[in-house]
Recover the amino acids of this structure.
């Protein structure tokens, strides 16, 4: 390797430049080499805005390593490119792949080479977003996740709703207004998340997983307001799409994009264009159930009325038949009763006459009874006299007595007693107790 010789002040014919001259020489060379400007592609990193100007680094990763160039996006160029970006609904931000046009410039005070951006190719960015989106969709299909959430059954009346949104956004206000306007008994459980920026993907993913595993909910709604196509790219992220596809609950999306469709919409159970439409779909589902219920009850009432009317008619017919039959039966019974009354009166007279005859005969027999009873009466008087004479009281009145043991047994023999036994002697006018001293056979 050769280098200039510095002996005796000899510089080998190579001029010595001041720093300013070197900077001017570099810029001159850049202008000559890139007189018409240059298109550069890469990924935006470090996006920052200082007043009306914006600054970032354009980065490219390759097998050889990482390369970057500083980009200045000054206010005049921003104002001129704003309509183009708005037309394609692009918003420049970190991690966005772009193809931009500009002129190279070496900035002497900082000694840095930069690119002054003055143009952009929107189709390149949109194409890159589409490619990324298609890659995510292909991976979801391969994993069997693409249609999984659409197969989740939706509750017949999804009144318990988990909502993933930014509470500070108009999207939440629109969603809530539509729900409240319905007058139905919705119960909302809201998780406040960022819907754009570096933390959006992680927060949205975590919220969907948390709400999707709640047994108290019927459905999860993911809503955000409108924005640029690059902002919608958050909802093309594979983590969010996987969380939606794997959710045990149906997921409704209302991402506020009338034209584009995010991967989140692709894998959701039901995708709506706006937060208001998302809320309206839930309201419609509940109202449909309510209408079906009311119609079912009305049909039950109609069928009940028809059956009741038919039963009333049948009962009326049966009542008329019963009336005719009862009247006929009563008529027949009246006739039989009349006939039986006649027979009863006739039979009654015969019975009375027979009874009268028997009564007369009985009276005659009774008149003969005294003559029949006289001998018997005299016999009875004789028997009574004999009984009177045999009465123990009469016998005892003549001096006889009765001896008993304390337990009431009559003592009829001296052999029944032993010395020391207590005996009770009954006289005509009382009793006396004594104790046996001896017995003699």
């Amino acid at each position: 390797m050769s280098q200039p010789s510095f002996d005796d002040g000899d510089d080998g014919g190579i001029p010595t430049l001041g720093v300013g001259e070197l900077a001017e020489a570099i810029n001159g060379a850049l202008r000559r080499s890139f007189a018409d400007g240059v298109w550069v592609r890469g990924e935006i990193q470090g996006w920052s805005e200082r007043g009306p100007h914006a600054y970032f680094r354009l980065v490219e990763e390759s097998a050889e390593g990482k390369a970057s160039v500083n980009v200045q996006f000054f206010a005049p160029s921003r104002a001129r490119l704003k309509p183009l970006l708005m037309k394609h609904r692009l918003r420049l931000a970190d991690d966005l792949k772009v193809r931009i046009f500009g002129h190279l410039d070496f900035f002497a005070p900082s000694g840095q080479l930069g690119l002054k951006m003055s143009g952009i190719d929107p189709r390149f960015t949109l194409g890159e977003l589409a490619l990324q989106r298609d890659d995510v969709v292909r991976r979801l299909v391969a994993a069997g996740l693409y249609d999984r959430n659409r197969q989740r059954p939706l509750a017949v009346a999804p009144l318990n709703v988990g909502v993933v949104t930014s509470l500070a956004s108009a999207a939440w206000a629109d969603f809530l207004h539509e729900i409240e306007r319905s007058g139905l008994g919705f119960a909302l459980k809201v998780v406040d998340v960022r819907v754009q920026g570096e933390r959006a993907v992680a927060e949205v993913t975590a919220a969907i997983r948390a709400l999707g595993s709640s047994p108290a909910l019927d459905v999860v709604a993911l809503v955000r307001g409108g924005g640029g196509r690059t902002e919608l790219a958050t909802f093309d992220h594979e983590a969010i799409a996987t969380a939606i596809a794997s959710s045990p609950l149906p997921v409704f999306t209302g991402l506020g994009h009338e034209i584009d469709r995010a991967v989140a919409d692709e894998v959701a159970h039901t995708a709506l264009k706006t937060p208001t439409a998302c809320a309206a779909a839930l309201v419609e589902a509940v109202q449909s159930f309510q209408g079906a219920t009311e119609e079912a009850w009305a049909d039950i009432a109609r069928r009940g009325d028809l059956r009741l009317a038919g039963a009333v008619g049948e009962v009326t017919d049966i009542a008329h038949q019963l009336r005719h039959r009862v009247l006929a039966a009563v008529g027949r019974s009246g006739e039989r009763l009349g006939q039986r009354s006649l027979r009863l009166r006739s039979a009654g007279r015969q019975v009375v006459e027979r009874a009268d005859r028997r009564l007369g005969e009985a009276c005659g027999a009774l008149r003969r009874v005294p003559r029949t009873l006289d001998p018997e009466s005299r016999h009875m008087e004789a028997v009574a006299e004999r009984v009177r004479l045999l009465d123990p009281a009469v016998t005892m009145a003549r001096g006889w007595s009765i001896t008993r043991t304390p337990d009431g047994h009559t003592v009829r023999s001296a052999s029944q007693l032993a010395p020391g036994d207590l005996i009770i002697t009954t006289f005509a006018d009382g009793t006396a107790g004594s104790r046996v001293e001896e017995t003699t056979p």
In short: The chain has ten helices and 13 strands.
